[in-house]
Write a structure and sequence with these properties.
The chain is an alpha/beta fold. It has helices at residues 6-11, 19-26, 85-89, 115-129, 147-157, 175-178, 195-198, 203-206, 230-241, 276-288; strands at residues 33-41, 47-55, 61-67, 94-98, 134-144, 163-169, 213-217, 247-249.
Length: 293
C-alpha cells in the first residue's frame, strides 16, 4: 500500500538482528543459502524476472512464493532489515520472489494488483512447482500488505491445488481501508468511487473462495492502519466462513470468528515482538500444520 515498497516499512519493524536472532525465535539454526536468477514466460507473453533462493545443501524443500506489497519489485526482498527471501531459505525452504509485470526487470504494464497480476501469480506458482528442488505439493504463498489482493485473487480465480497455505502479512481487505477512505496519498489516483477498478481488487471479495489454509499475521499496531483491526477481521471471518482449509491469526484459536467490537479479547502481536523473528516463527509453524477443519 506504499509506493516505495513494503521492505522499507518492514525495515522499521523493531528488533531486527542477524542469524542468531532468527535462531532464537524460530529454534532453527539458519543454514547457508544461494540464489539464481530465472525468467518466467507467462501466457500473456510477458517475461517475469525472479530469484530463487535455496539452502546450499542438496535435496528437495518446501516452497514459498513471495508476493510483494505496494508497487514493489520482488528484488526488494533481497535486502533490508525486514523479512528477506534468504532468511526464509536459510530455514529450510526454497523461496521465490518475482517482479510483477510492469515492475523491476519484468516486461509488460503495471496492473496495480488486478486480474493480470493475479493470473500471473498462478503461472509463477506453476513454474515454481516444477523446480527440481521444490516439493511440488508443499508450497505456500507469503503476501505482504496489498499483495494480499494479488494472492487472494489468484487463489480464488485460478485454482492452485499445490498451494497448501496463504500467509498474509497485514494486508487490507477492501477499497475503503486500502485507501484509508481516500486519504492514503500513495493511492490518491484510485478513488473508492472507481467501481470498475476496485471490483477486481478487494481481497475480501476473493478470500472466501480460497481452498488452502489462511494465516494472518497482525500486529497490534498495523504498518498502515495503526490500531484498526477491521481489515484483518473481515478477511479472517470471510475465509473462515468460506472454503479455506483452516484459518488462524497469530496465536488465536484455529477457525475463530472474530467480533470487531471485542478486539481487546484477541491476541495481536505486541510491538516488542513485531519483528521478522516472529514472522519467521509463525511461517515455520504454518508450514508444519497438516490439520484440516
Amino acid at each position: 500500500m506504499i509506493s516505495k515498497g513494503d521492505m522499507g516499512l518492514l525495515g522499521n519493524i523493531i528488533g531486527w538482528r542477524g542469524s542468531a536472532f532468527i535462531e532464537k525465535f524460530t529454534g532453527k539454526t539458519p543454514v547457508d543459502t544461494a540464489y539464481k536468477e530465472v525468467w518466467i514466460k507467462t501466457a500473456s507473453g510477458h517475461s517475469i524476472y525472479a530469484h530463487i533462493h535455496r539452502p546450499i545443501t542438496p535435496g528437495k524443500f518446501p516452497g514459498v512464493v513471495f508476493v510483494p506489497g505496494g508497487g514493489s519489485p520482488g528484488t526488494d526482498y533481497d535486502k533490508g532489515n525486514g523479512v528477506r527471501a534468504k532468511d526464509v531459505a536459510s530455514l529450510g525452504f526454497v523461496a521465490l520472489h518475482y517482479d510483477p509485470s510492469g515492475r523491476g526487470k519484468s516486461s509488460g504494464k503495471e496492473d496495480y494488483w488486478g486480474p493480470l497480476h493475479q493470473q500471473e501469480l498462478s503461472q509463477v506458482v506453476d513454474y515454481f512447482s516444477h523446480s527440481n528442488d521444490v516439493m511440488e505439493n508443499d508450497i505456500g504463498i507469503m503476501s505482504f500488505s496489498i499483495g494480499i489482493t494479488i494472492a487472494s485473487g489468484a487463489l480464488a480465480r485460478f485454482p492452485m491445488p499445490k498451494v497448501r497455505y496463504l500467509f498474509d502479512w497485514e494486508g487490507p481487505s477492501n477499497r475503503f481501508n486500502t485507501t484509508k477512505n481516500d486519504t492514503h496519498k500513495p493511492l490518491k489516483g484510485f478513488p473508492t468511487s472507481n467501481d470498475e477498478f476496485w471490483k477486481e481488487r478487494e481481497a475480501a471479495t476473493f478470500i472466501g473462495d480460497i481452498e488452502c489454509a489462511y494465516f494472518r499475521y497482525q500486529a497490534d499496531i498495523d504498518h498502515v492502519q495503526e490500531g484498526y483491526k477491521g481489515h484483518a477481521i473481515e478477511l479472517l471471518n470471510n475465509a473462515t466462513k468460506g472454503k479455506a482449509l483452516w484459518t488462524r491469526c497469530n496465536d488465536n484459536p484455529t477457525n475463530s470468528l472474530f467480533d470487531e467490537k471485542k478486539t481487546d479479547e484477541y491476541y495481536w502481536v505486541p510491538q516488542h515482538l513485531n519483528h521478522k523473528g516472529q514472522v519467521l516463527k509463525y511461517l515455520i509453524e504454518v508450514a508444519d500444520i497438516k490439520c484440516t477443519r
